[in-house]
């Protein structure tokens, strides 16, 4: 089982779109996939459930809160959901997609976890450091998760403690970004923060971690008759200058197709045949999955 965190400091860069479609296409190719929504905005959750249909469902917030209250985590497997619409498509193809959902209250959990470590700074001096930082990693060692091929974690657009538990549990990291100055500005900073986390964690842990950034995925790319806009090509070139790996496949801007996918609770990569623009988007998403498989060998 490979664990992959999807993260960028900036919101609105297509992070959830990449996670949802990558997970759905992997399942359509016969893989068993678990998606974990660690963003309090719960956009990944609502990619597979209409808000009106998502009531009284267990969420990752409750799992973290149970740990804070009792200092002992519950089995994470009891929080796994199986969205009906998408599984109706991928199960006949031999795959399966499960989800651990999120909700807005997750934003408060980080403060509770940090308080248990004595605050937001110098946390590795706390005797509970490894217990908290390895919370998600340990939960995923439960035998109930043995059959999964991939776990994709949609992280919040920050580097808070909940996000760090995801990175500690991860083998790989994907960084979605829009090809503009502000979206690419924080990519090198993210790499630096990840490196610092790895160094600090490994200085006190017996089992070292080494989550690898396998690439930046450029999303919401706008095209002219001659290709991507010049300003966007310049932003992509900036990423190469800092020697950050970049996925060859980009994802074009198609807000209507993404919106319609959300309304159907089925990611665009599995949408029924549509206009040429929709088919082009689907092709790009499928190519992204193929490149992801080549980079991770899942």
Structure overview:
By secondary structure, the chain is of the alpha/beta class. The protein has one domain: Rossmann fold, CATH 3.40.50.300. The chain has helices at residues 15-28, 60-70, 84-90, 106-115, 129-133, 135-139, 161-169, 181-185, 187-202, 230-241, 255-264, 276-296; strands at residues 2-6, 32-38, 96-100, 150-155, 172-177, 212-218, 223-224, 227-228. The strands form two sheets. A six-stranded parallel beta sheet has the order 3-2-4-1-5-6, with helices on both faces. A two-stranded antiparallel sheet has the order 7-8. The termini are close together.
Quickly name the level 1 CATH class.
Alpha Beta
Overall form: globular
| Main β-sheet, spatial strand arrangement | 3-2-4-1-5-6
Amino- and carboxy-terminal Cα gap: 8 Å
Give the low-confidence spans: none
User: What proportion of the residues form beta strands (DSSP E)?
Assistant: 5-15%
Q: Let me know the average pLDDT.
A: 90
Helical content band: 40-55%
Give the beta-strand count: 8
CATH homologous superfamily designation: P-loop containing nucleotide triphosphate hydrolases
CATH architecture: 3-Layer(aba) Sandwich
Whole-number count of domains: 1
| CATH domain fold name | Rossmann fold
Structural class: alpha/beta
H and E order: EHEHHEHHHEHEHHEEEHHH
Topology, please?
Layout: E1 2-6, H1 15-28, E2 32-38, H2 60-70, H3 84-90, E3 96-100, H4 106-115, H5 129-133, H6 135-139, E4 150-155, H7 161-169, E5 172-177, H8 181-185, H9 187-202, E6 212-218, E7 223-224, E8 227-228, H10 230-241, H11 255-264, H12 276-296
Parallel strand pairs: 1-4, 1-5, 2-3, 2-4, 5-6
Antiparallel strand pairs: 7-8
Helix pairs in contact: 1-12, 2-4
């Amino acid at each position: 089982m490979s664990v992959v965190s999807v993260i960028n400091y900036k919101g609105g860069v297509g992070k959830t779109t990449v996670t949802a479609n990558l997970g759905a296409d992997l399942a359509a190719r016969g893989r068993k996939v678990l998606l974990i929504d660690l963003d309090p905005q719960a956009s990944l959750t609502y990619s597979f459930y209409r808000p009106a249909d998502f009531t009284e469902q267990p969420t990752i917030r409750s799992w973290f809160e149970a740990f804070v209250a009792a200092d002992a985590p519950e089995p994470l497997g009891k929080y796994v959901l199986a969205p009906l619409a998408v599984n109706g498509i991928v199960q006949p193809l031999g795959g399966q997609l499960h989800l651990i959902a999120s909700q807005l209250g997750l934003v408060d959990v980080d403060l509770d976890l940090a308080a248990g470590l004595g605050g937001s700074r110098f946390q590795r001096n706390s005797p509970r450091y490894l217990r908290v930082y390895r919370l998600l990693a340990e939960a995923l060692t439960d035998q109930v998760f043995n059959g999964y091929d991939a776990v994709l974690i949609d992280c919040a657009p920050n580097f808070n403690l909940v996000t760090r538990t995801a990175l500690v549990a991860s083998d790989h990291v994907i960084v979605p970004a829009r090809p503009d100055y502000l979206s690419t500005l924080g990519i090198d900073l993210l790499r630096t923060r990840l490196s610092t986390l790895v160094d600090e964690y490994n200085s006190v842990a017996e089992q070292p971690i080494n989550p690898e950034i396998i690439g930046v995925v450029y999303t919401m790319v706008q095209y002219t008759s001659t290709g991507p806009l010049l300003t966007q090509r310049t932003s992509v070139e900036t990423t190469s200058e800092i020697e950050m790996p970049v996925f060859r496949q980009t994802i074009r801007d198609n807000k209507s197709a993404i919106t319609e996918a959300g309304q159907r609770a089925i990611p665009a990569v599995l949408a029924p045949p549509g206009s040429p623009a929709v088919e082009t988007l689907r092709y790009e998403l499928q190519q992204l999955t193929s490149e992801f498989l080549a980079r991770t060998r899942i």
